Amino acid sequence: MSQVPTEYYLLLSAVIFVIGAAGVLARRNALIIFMCVEMMLNAVNLSLIALSLQFGNLTGQIVVFFVMAVAAAEVAVGLAIVMAHVRHSDSINVDEINLLNG
Amino acid sequence: MSTLLFFALAALAIAGALGVVLNKKPVYSALALLLNFAVLAVLFITLHAQFLAAVQVIVYAGAIVVLFLFVIMLIGDSLPGVVIRGRTRLTLLAVAAVAAVLLLAGMTYSIIGGAFAAQSGALPGNGSVQAIGAALFTDYLLPFELASVLLLVAMIGAVVLARKPQQ
């Protein structure tokens, strides 16, 4: 049994999530925004696993497994989009991405 | 002892997270992200999630960070860095700070108010790989198969997007 209270894990998860969210809002580099999103996903994974142990139920761990699969797919497609956009307009600033802006 | 270990790991994880956000260069951000992922893998082990800790190291610290580094190396030096000054920068920082404070306050309030009882029983099989596999291939077989379709679609999508545009 883990002796560390579940609340500590949840608080750590909240702190990492908030740092990631602040990064998404404050940074304009597409790659760094992407990394911050990954970090937020991982923070949620931590809280799911902590609650999985808290309630003695494996469902939380299974959900984390699927979150990881989706995150891997998302990174592959997202980075391909970033590459395609950089090839198109030589910029990685998300404020300059307005191709679909009619 | 385990509380001490937790605080040391938590400090490392937060340092990695801050490193991702605060570093100017994406390469350093990616390395800080690696630190964050590795520390979280250790925390997963302290939470009896051995399988997910291994997957975390392989998928996140291995595949995803390496993918980021590949992209940074491919496009990194050919681009001017993203530098934001003046009003825009202040606005961004203010929005981020307000959102962060509000989010953190709300989450802390609800977590502290949660008042968890003592842990209600051990995990089935103590979180072993066998227990995860049994759950994954019985109760969660359909989502598992759908995940393989998702990965296939993502692979095809990435190949199509990353190809050189045809004239």
Can you offer a commentary on this structure?
- Chain A is 75% helix and 0% strand.
- Chain A has three helices and no strands.
- Chain A starts with 5 loop residues before the first helix and ends in a 13-residue tail after the last helix.
- In chain A, 55% of the residues are buried.
- By secondary structure, chain B is an all-alpha fold.
- Chain B is built from six helices and no strands.
What tags apply to this protein structure?
heterodimer; A: 102 residues; mainly alpha; 3 helices; 75% helix; elongated; B: 167 residues; 6 helices
What is the molecular shape of chain B?
globular
Which shape of chain A, going by the Cα principal axes?
elongated
From the structure provided, what is the oligomeric state, counting identical versus distinct chains?
heterodimer
The H-and-E topology of chain A, N to C, reads as HHH
Q: What is the mean predicted local confidence, pLDDT of chain A?
A: 89
Separation of the first and last Cα atoms of chain B: 64 Å
Beta content of chain A: under 5%
